[in-house]
Amino acid sequence: MTDAQSRTGPFWDAVEGRAPMPPVADLLGWRLEAVAPEEGTITVQFEARHEFSNPQGNIQGGILAAMLDDTMGPALVATLPAGRFAPTLEMKVSYFAPAKVGPLWGHGRVVHTGRTHAFVEADLVDADDKLIARASATVRILKM
Q1: Using an 8 Å Cβ cutoff, are 111 and 135 in contact?
Q2: CA atoms within 13 A on the CB side of 55
Q3: Of 6, 16, 9, which Cα lies nearest the Cα of 36?
Q4: N or C: which terminus of the chain carries fewer CB neighbours within 10 A?
Q5: Running along the chain, 144 residues long, what does each successive block of 10 average in pLDDT?
Q6: What span, in angstroms and rounded, lies between the C-alpha atoms of 95 and 138?
Q7: From CA 129, how far away is CA 19, in angstroms rounded?
Q8: What is the C-alpha separation between 40 and 50, in angstroms, rounded?
């Protein structure tokens, strides 16, 4: 993939300010920190807001899963040519520690890419680099 190809499509349009971010990215406080398409990796910061808390004051697990999904997907989409998209077919999440209100970081990676499917993973950590949750997913690569 050439550098010009790597910088076209909805992912790049949004992160480079040519198009608005998806509403869910805004809701989660999604902010790109680093992306390396040639390595299939990404780091994203999220803002875990008070409104995401469960009765114990921790961030609700479904919100954490959404953050992980919004880390894995962009890790792959950043590697794809323009005109491709990758919806999640299945996802597994393991929770290791409660997440508190505040910043969280998603570290995503593409494990394997085939012609029509890919396998991706992500970790979600807090400001102390403590592992909060880990996810893996199978995604389908489609033409938009």
Answers
A1: no
A2: 0
A3: 6
A4: C
A5: 58 90 95 96 98 97 98 95 92 98 98 97 98 98 92
A6: 19
A7: 31
A8: 32
Res 6: pLDDT: 53
Assess contact for 64 and 132: CB atoms under 8 A: yes
Angstrom CA distances, 132 to 63, 87, 96, 107, 128, stand at 12, 24, 5, 12, 10
C-alpha 113/C-alpha 140 separation (Å) is 10
- Does residue 106 contact residue 123 with C-beta atoms inside 8 Å? yes
Burial of 108 (0-12, 13-18, 19+ CB in 10 A): buried
| Token pair of 115 as six digits | 């012609």
SS3 letters across the chain: CCHHHHCCCHHHHHHCCCCCCCHHHHHHCCEEEEEECCCCEEEEEEEECHHHECCCCCECHHHHHHHHHHHHHHHHHCCCCCCEECCEEEEEEEECCCCCCEEEEEEEEEEEECCCEEEEEEEEECCCCCEEEEEEEEEECEEC
Q: What is the spatial distance between Cα 99 and Cα 50, in angstroms, rounded to a whole number?
A: 11
